[in-house]
Amino acid sequence: MVKTIGILGAMPAEVALLAAKLGKEQKKRVGGVDFYEGTLHGKEVVLCCAGMGKANAAAATQLLVTAFGSEAIVFSGIAGNMTSRIGIGDVVVSDKVTYHDAELSMISQNYPNLTEYTADPALIHAAEEACNEAGVHHIVGKVATGDQFVGDTATKNRIKDFCDPACVEMEGAAVAHIAAKNDVPFVIIRAMSDNSDEAGAELLVGKEFDIREYCKTASEITEGVIKKL
Q1: Can you tell me the distance from the alpha carbon of 3 to that of 25, in angstroms, rounded to the nearest whole number?
Q2: With 50 as the cut, is the pLDDT of residue 124 above it?
Q3: pLDDT classification of 207: cutoffs 50, 70, 90
Q4: Which residues are catalytic?
Q5: How far apart are CA 225 and CA 220, in angstroms?
Q6: Dist CA 50 CA 12 (whole Å)
Q7: For the chain, the helix, strand and coil percentages under 3-state DSSP, each to the nearest 5
Q8: pLDDT attached to residue 206
Q9: How far is the C-alpha of 229 from the C-alpha of 214, rounded, in Å?
Q10: What is the tens place of the pLDDT at every residue in 164-183?
Q11: Buried b (16+ CB within 10 A) or exposed e, 194-225
């Protein structure tokens, strides 16, 4: 049985709903990140807002493992849709996770010597069950990560040609990479906030866009996973 579960998101709205539900909460600041230790549905969890981008995600994931003893990692947040199989508001549960902006042949020269990272089957199953119980349409698919917001058709098509992911975001592969380096199981849970195109860029970047609805979906599924572990 997993003793401590590490949960992280990139933005405050992606972790606030879960943080509000923690029991016996204790706050610790390590490496410039606030970590919240507590209980959720009888499980010991450590929750943090890592910040956006790969470096922030990798650093927070390593701290979850080495400083807080997390034995499983769950990332919860929003992403840009890359497939016609789902729409905005639906969820992608990761099976494979990879970088879309990296020289994979060079990264894979060091342990765990991989160009893509495989999510834990038990965590995938728990996330799927949580989606079904919540009535959330979802697919299990590949998540692609890069240090850029994807908001134009040309970039979307380039990424699709490179690795054909179900969604695109800015943290998942870094989380998965560090989890794999530490031999810790992980899963990435992403609610679709846009379609990775010009309309999405205008909405999320050009306007004051409320992402809370999509964060609520991702948080609800993450909470469902914790219940089942």
Answers
A1: 16
A2: yes
A3: very low
A4: 14, 194
A5: 9
A6: 9
A7: 35, 30, 35
A8: 47
A9: 23
A10: 999 999 999 999 999 999 99
A11: bbbbeebbebbeeeeeebeebbebbbbbbbbb
Distance of alpha carbon 18 from alpha carbon 10, whole angstroms: 13
Is the peptide bond prior to 112 cis by the omega test (within 30 degrees of 0)? yes
How many residues belong to the chain?
229
Spell out the long-range contacts of 149-155 with Cβ–Cβ below 8 A and sequence spacing 24 or more: 149/80, 149/201, 149/204, 149/205, 150/80, 150/196, 151/80, 151/194, 151/196, 151/197, 151/198, 151/200, 151/201, 151/202, 151/204, 151/205, 152/197, 152/198, 152/201, 153/197, 153/198, 155/196
What is the band of 203 on the pLDDT scale with cuts at 50, 70, 90?
low
Average pLDDT of span 185-193: 95
Q: Say what the pLDDT of residue 202 is.
A: 58
Distance in angstroms (rounded) separating the CA atoms of residues 189 and 76: 5
At residue 222, the pLDDT reads: 95
* Ramachandran class of 23: left when φ > 0, alpha when ψ lies in -120 to 50, beta otherwise: beta
CA gap 159, 131 in Å, rounded: 27
What does the alpha-carbon distance between residue 140 and residue 19 come to, in Å, rounded to a whole number? 26
- DSSP class of residue 183 equals T
Largest CA distance in the chain: 48
Res. 197 pLDDT band, cuts 50 70 90: confident
Q: Residue 100 belongs to what H/E stretch? A: none
Give the pTM: 0.94
Q: Are 104 and 115 in contact (CB under 8 A)?
A: yes
What is the enclosing helix (H) or strand (E) of 167? strand 167-169
